[in-house]
Amino acid sequence: MSEHSEQSGHVGHVVPVSTYVIVFILLMMGTALTTGVAYIDLGRWNTVVALAIAVTKTMLVVLFFMHVKYAAGLTRVVILAGFFWLGIMITLSCSDELTRTWEIIPQGWNMIIPFVSRLF
Amino acid sequence: MSELAAHGAHPPGFAHQFETVAQQREAGQLGMWVFLVTEILFFGGMFTSYTIYRALHYESFVTGSHLLEVRFGATNTYVLICSSLTMALAIRCAQTGKRKGQIIFWLILTMIFGALFLGLKLRFEWYRDYVDGIVPGVSWAYTGAHAPGVKMFMCFYFFMTGLHALHMVVGLGILTTLVIMTARNRFSPEYYAPLEISGLYWHFVDIVWIFLFALLYLIGGRYPGS
């Protein structure tokens, strides 16, 4: 990547304006889609769809606007580690909080269903 | 020019401890991302507690969510996405060595969108919430269903959107600095690190709003009977 950028006379990858505009249009469409879907009764899937669209939009911003698609490997590892730590925080906090009312001897993993179902 | 001569053949902005300009650029990006990771975990703490309290008080949180108006949240999302595009274009102008007037144009457009976001937030959301009496501790007149839980939801709402807005204000300060630096010819295609690093910050604040919009306004649905 660095050799390439030195040859072209610039520092860093120059993203074409068309890419930025396409990403911009996709983000606008994603916002319209997520807003529209909220008014349709999908039951629990409303939450899943809203979060899935938010994650997709985040990926677009991170990869193209924040140039991570063209970034060094070390930078990518640090970013992935950051989201991994976020996952640890959310997962462990929820697994504590949502299992506090369990009986002393859990009857099996299906006991988590009533708690998980309250997330959506 | 005299500064450049004093540094030998080094391009402006190139620090001596780096082997190449590319290495300096990667180090700068990496450092900024380490900071942004701390920001992810900072906001992540609030997202985690929001998730848990939502699970514990589901009905209250849905009732509270319906007190917010989707059209303002959605409008602000569009505004922030526009500001992200203009920020990316400002950096691109610096990368490709465009005239400084162009860089300043995109930066100021970014600031206008950022200020528009804050203006809409203040005037049509927070001010109305104050008038409607759904601001816990300041103006609380809500007497509907699930009052204690709704109060907790509104606390989450004001802390999360408040801290996000604080980041926006900091971002506007950074953008002001960038405009001044650009006007003083501090950037070139070889050196535009402050622009790029600040861009990362601005886009990150955009991402936080994308999640706040989904979590506070949308999830659980807005259809009749939800």
Task: Describe the protein.
Chain A is mostly helical and 120 residues long. Chain A is built from 5 helices and no strands. Chain A has helices at residues 2-7, 17-37, 45-65, 73-97, 113-116. In chain A, helix 2 (17-37) runs antiparallel to helix 3. The model of chain A is unreliable at 1-9 (pLDDT under 50). Chain B has 226 residues and is mainly α. Chain B is 76% helix and 2% strand. Chain B contains 7 helices and 2 strands. Chain B has helices at residues 2-6, 21-56, 58-65, 70-95, 100-132, 147-183, 193-218; strands at 134-135, 139-140. In chain B, strands 1-2 form a two-stranded antiparallel ribbon. In chain B, strand 1 (134-135) and strand 2 (139-140) form a beta hairpin. The chains are: A mainly alpha (120), B mainly alpha (226).
- Mean pLDDT of chain A comes to 86
First-to-last CA distance of chain A = 43 Å
Beta-strand residue percentage of chain B: under 5%
Number of helices of chain A: 5
Q: How much helical structure, as a percent, in the residues of chain B?
A: over 70%
Structural class of chain A: mainly alpha
Which regions of chain B are unreliable across 5 or more consecutive residues at pLDDT < 50? none
The 3D shape of chain B can be described as elongated
Helices and strands of chain A, in order, run as HHHHH
Which sequence of strands runs across the widest sheet of chain B? 1-2
Mean pLDDT of chain B: 93
Largest sheet of chain A: none
